[in-house]
């Protein structure tokens, strides 16, 4: 039986190496190996670049593993997903590799088990269990409330999520990210969007 813990909340360092489902972050000469979704690996950047990795520690009787996420929202949904019986770290990462945290939230809120079942290793019964057990995590939450629709694109949606996790109200987060996206144009990275959105929100 595994337990999750938060002894290491995040890592900031240079990307030393990446694998199919893992990344090594060098923090002051210490290399931390963390499991990661395909979405996180794509968002972090290339080997040699500096990145921030939100982390979750998985402790079991015979191992201690570190999981890493590009956003706090992805980490939060990893926790929600692994709380469901039958959903281990591998399955949770498979879901988060094909669906953003916002898409998982939407699927759960709409009881769209078929959307969850698109992930490798997730059958119809498990997908149904996921939406049934997690509906209270998403049912009362709108993706962007009171501030218009989130700007299109995964990076913009993740930027709004990041702003929400920093304590901004949905309307403030959406407006700031919209303004940043307009200024930076299409193809802006998540990091650039969040940095500019924070500056605009502070004005």
Automatic annotation (TrEMBL):
One Pfam family per UniProt: RuvA_C
The superkingdom of the source organism is Bacteria
Any GO BP: DNA repair
Keywords linked to the UniProt accession? ATP-binding, Cytoplasm, DNA damage, DNA recombination, DNA repair, DNA-binding, Helicase, Hydrolase, Nucleotide-binding
Identify the residues that the record assigns to the Helix-hairpin-helix DNA-binding motif class domain, covering every copy.
Answer: 79-98, 114-133
The record's section on Gene3D superfamilies has:
5' to 3' exonuclease, C-terminal subdomain, DNA helicase RuvA subunit, C-terminal domain, Nucleic acid-binding proteins
Under Gene Ontology molecular function, one entry of this record is:
four-way junction DNA binding
Please name the InterPro entries in this protein's record.
DNA_helicase_Holl-junc_RuvA_I, Hlx-hairpin-Hlx_DNA-bd_motif, NA-bd_OB-fold, RuvA, RuvA_2-like, RuvA_C, RuvA_C_sf
Region: Domain III; residue ranges are 156-203
Quick one: a GO cellular component term? Answer: Holliday junction resolvase complex
Where in the cell?
A: Cytoplasm
Q: Where is this region: Domain I?
A: 7-70
On subunit structure and binding partners, the annotation says:
Homotetramer. Forms an RuvA(8)-RuvB(12)-Holliday junction (HJ) complex. HJ DNA is sandwiched between 2 RuvA tetramers; dsDNA enters through RuvA and exits via RuvB. An RuvB hexamer assembles on each DNA strand where it exits the tetramer. Each RuvB hexamer is contacted by two RuvA subunits (via domain III) on 2 adjacent RuvB subunits; this complex drives branch migration. In the full resolvosome a probable DNA-RuvA(4)-RuvB(12)-RuvC(2) complex forms which resolves the HJ.
| Comment text on domains | Has three domains with a flexible linker between the domains II and III and assumes an 'L' shape. Domain III is highly mobile and contacts RuvB.
The role this protein plays is:
The RuvA-RuvB-RuvC complex processes Holliday junction (HJ) DNA during genetic recombination and DNA repair, while the RuvA-RuvB complex plays an important role in the rescue of blocked DNA replication forks via replication fork reversal (RFR). RuvA specifically binds to HJ cruciform DNA, conferring on it an open structure. The RuvB hexamer acts as an ATP-dependent pump, pulling dsDNA into and through the RuvAB complex. HJ branch migration allows RuvC to scan DNA until it finds its consensus sequence, where it cleaves and resolves the cruciform DNA.
By sequence similarity, the record places it as follows: Belongs to the RuvA family.
- Identification of the protein by name: Holliday junction branch migration complex subunit RuvA
Taxonomic source organism: Sphingomonas kyeonggiensis
GN (gene name): ruvA
